[in-house]
């Protein structure tokens, strides 16, 4: 392997699956067995996808490292690069470098309850945590609170519905909030009246009590969501050090050089790509501009 | 530190001898500005220059450079570095390179920067401050390391400090050009430094600065200056410690493409933009404040990200003064 941190490695698209009208799930595997064997990541880490000759973009890995032999990316069509990627088919090859960033402290959280709070596309990095927690079985209870726009926008819908039905057996409890009413949502709500409701993700906290001494919250969603979710958690006296959030910036390099993800002031300066992208709420309190 | 003396009459021979170590670059005068250029004749050098427009970072982290070339679907790495001798760096610029090292040599090291840095000799030269310099306040007015040789002006030659093994080798190979330092030379050196210390017109008291600036996050002074600022990004380009870059792929023909990087500026609107259109620094105020905070970040192990070279002041078309902004922001707290 090259010493050059900007070199990218061939990975073949094994499968492309439509998740919604905007998001596709890409399953990839490195071509070089040596690269494949060395590639290991933690939930919450990200990689950089290289469409050679067109550019690169950072994206978090949405599969769990417990599932070996492949990794998955959930890509929303939003701009020039992702539009290009959405045209790619099974068998096509892209460049990949990484993984980058700190990821969630999965080992530190072992034995605790996990509350995953996802909004929209924020489901992608938290899916990695979700399956990691279920596969390893090292966590007490796992709650997934997922806020989505409409039934059609639910990412990994099959998995979510599967966990709604059978999650209890895996110590996993899923709750879903939707904003736009539709027959499918009402049908879902009738089936799981205690866990599916119309509203926003913070509504899912209603009536929930948890042991603040033994619980971690992990949040990912659009920038506007953090403030409201954090307020719910702080109201229940969860320590800012137990609230983890994964943040987004458009990193060009991923290795702490290009400067695009720098945040902070004269007393605290962080590179989201290396110091993050996972931060505690305490980090956000002590570093201005983080959220 | 080892000290030797280079008498004035040997300067030319000494300078010529440096060519054996790599391509020689030194400050020359071009119109109204100074610039580091390839030099063959010592008469071309502006020994008493104030500051160049672009700092010596341009030799290691280039304004625009190809990092990868696409051949047959794969990126070929282009890590080339020719041996260079940078002659005549001021202390502030040597400190500036040390700050860049912190970023670019930090693991994983940037291979382009690293190979050029390793193949380059740095020869410092003493200077007299002008109205823009405030390096003394930041402790960057004297370099203790980060150079191979450092030349201090004496009435009849140069007092040379040797800062590295390579510097020692140069002195060794040109042994006949150097003399031992006398007491008189030391007295002259001391006199020069004292005169220089008194010549600074600008000062930025460091005491509690990082803390005060953080507390003054919402100061109206930021807004006042953000409105004067033209957001041209000149200050980023000329700053010896600004190191943001943008990456762009461009096609040379139907089969080959090149991945280039070029200087980026945090004053540009898309610096804080992410996919989907959210901007983390949407206003000029956000971007203005971000640059000042980035420069004023106090790293407990390495100090400030600013070396007080005065370039951003001299080349600011809106005549915004770095020290004045920070002083006013601090003052607005009371």
UniProtKB/TrEMBL annotation, chain A:
Q: Which cofactor does it need?
A: [2Fe-2S] cluster
Q: Which UniProt keywords apply?
A: 2Fe-2S, Electron transport, FAD, Flavoprotein, Iron, Iron-sulfur, Metal-binding, Transport
Q: Does the keyword section mention Iron-sulfur? A: yes
Does the record's keyword annotation contain Flavoprotein? Answer: yes
Q: How is the cofactor bound?
A: Binds 1 [2Fe-2S] cluster per subunit.
Record-listed [2Fe-2S] cluster binding positions: 253, 258, 261, 273
Q: Where is the FAD-binding FR-type domain?
A: 6-106
Q: Which is one GO molecular function term here?
A: flavin adenine dinucleotide binding
Q: Which Gene3D superfamilies does UniProt cross-reference here?
A: Dihydroorotate dehydrogenase, electron transfer subunit, Nucleotide-binding domain of ferredoxin-NADP reductase (FNR) module, Translation factors
GO terms classed as biological process: pyrimidine nucleotide biosynthetic process
Protein name per its UniProtKB record: Cytochrome-c3 hydrogenase subunit gamma
Species: Thermococcus radiotolerans
